[in-house]
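Structure tokens please, single chain.
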Amino acid sequence: MTETPASSQTIDPRLLEVLVCPLTKGPLRYDREKGELVSEKAHLAFPIRDGIPIMLVEEARVLDDQGSHS
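Here you go.
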């Protein structure tokens, strides 16, 4: 059994056309490498699990505008 890495998940392009950020109602950018839908306006990244976007603000990751500080 092998797990599917986030980078190999695909999302239907038609779904991307209709999805918007639940907070700002603005556009989302698909980050294939991280398996997320990114709202630049809200500074949030919504996860995609098993090909399904999780469009809940409480499930979103806050984007770090200061660069990566691990």
